[in-house]
Amino acid sequence: MTLLYIIPTYNTFDLPLLGILKNALFIMLISPIQNLLLLLSLGSLLVIYYFIPGIAFFFNVSVFAWLNTFFVMDATKQVLVKKQSV
Q: What is the Cα gyration radius of the chain?
């Protein structure tokens, strides 16, 4: 699950590799609701691809990347807001 958070964390923070991995892990652990929504949306996407396999060829990577970025950036924004309020 942490692998889904690495690229958006890399794009958001200017940190070395170990810092990116650590922040991705912390963001993943702090935001369980976004994790659940991400897993549900990716699971439903797989079900759609199973029943309509022709669209997977055209939309697989882009829809996966959009869903991943949408939920991970929402979790990152929440962490940044909490960090600024402290």
A: 14
